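In the laboratory, one determines a bound structure by crystallizing the protein with its ligand and collecting diffraction data. In a computational setting the workflow is compressed into a single prediction: the sequence and the ligand go in, and a structural description comes out. We illustrate the idea with pyridoxal-5'-phosphate.
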Amino acid sequence: MPISIVIDRSAAAPLYQQIAEQIKEQIAAGKLMTGARLPTVRQLADDLGVTRLTIQSAYGELQAGGWIEATVGRGTFVSQQPRRPLRAAAGTPPTAVHVIGDILQLSESSGIRSLGKASPDPALFPAEEFWAVLGQLLPHSAELAGYGSAQGDPALRLAFAENVRERGIDATPADILITAGVTQGLALTAQSLAQPGDTVLVEQPTYIGFLHQLRSYGLNPIAVPMDDQGVQPEMLERIAIQTRARFLYTISTYHNPTGCCAPVERRRQLLEIAHRVGFKIVEDDIYAALALDAPPPPAIKSLDRNGSVVYLSSLSKSFMPGLRIGFLIAPQPLLERLTSLRMATDLVSPLLLQRTAAELLKSGCLRRHLRRVIPLYRARRDALLAALALHLPNEVTFTQPTGGLSCWLTLPRRPGLQDLPRQMVEAGWAVAPGEVLWADHDGDLHLRLSYGCCRRIR
Ligand SMILES: Cc1ncc(COP(=O)(O)O)c(C=O)c1O
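The predicted complex, in structure-token form:
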């Protein structure tokens, strides 16, 4: 179908914007299909009686927003993955479900520079080693075609038990349950430690996916303020006593979204309060392998002498999120309850992928991969922090992550800024709006910028 554009020279909107908007509308309505070729700059300029610069500006805006792709020598085409409208509607407070959906969608859209998703860069995955290991498992096909153990493949549990020694944790394969990522571990833990209506403590701000889980299980997340060393101990004690909370969920090592890392003394204080007041700590250690400056402090679990901590981690940030391989370590009899609930949910994780992960850990592939990618993530973090320092006014503050994948911005309360994430998407940048990462929004405006996939930052 030929492109149809009507321009209004008396309108306030500049000509390039009118043209870009009409092309967007036609793509969104399916009138211009994926892969359709757009007229050349010269053709369209002649047809509409405007300058080539006007068309170049319109195409530039569409390209930045992910609507079209230009290939030198071939032409300009409607993107293979054009963007759908954002689910978080303009002018209404975004919900966790909408924001998670938008972040995932935008990260797949070409032309969008994604600072929205706290994920490792798929272009860095060690694909060849992965497929080679999978191929080496061919002689074990018959064994790996079955369900395997409910607690998880013993070879993988052994590999994780060896791996967590680096975090100071002394665990045996019998202490470990393999899960479908930390997400499943958190789901099982939340349902085992609390009943609908119970209160659960979370850091302020926290991981959006867990807030979503808690609310969908009918649990009531209450926020505990943080400082630059993590959860504030006095506030934790006071709020835990007042609310009779069942557990504290903490990402103490390279926190998502702030990148903050609690020093060992703070970790001891949290444990001591948990033991004294009588609640559990659910420690999400998913970012610990992404230490960008210095080795991280030991896990809270490694300091636990009273069975207060459930420890969770996965290969999602250090390796590949698509593997869906994670694990948790919990004291008995809780581990037994968690295993039983896992069996009732989806029985087991695919044995072939568990064994592949075990081989990758055993062969040192994960260690080599981390040695290769950490300098790249460090450079991306440094570039982002330098750009923020250079371009943002002083009234915008931001954290200085020493690991993990995210940086947290606090903006002044100024009218018009609420819609900033949406405006940034229009300009070709995806970021996570901060208010959905708060259990109890403080009214400030925040953004989370994640640098893991930001290849274009220089
Ligand atoms: C703190 C935190 N925990 C858990 C997850 C999800 O982990 P998984 O992919 O292992 O389910 C994420 C993903 O962003 C995260 O940031």
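The chain has a mean pLDDT of 91. Keep in mind that any predicted model is a hypothesis to be tested, not a measurement.
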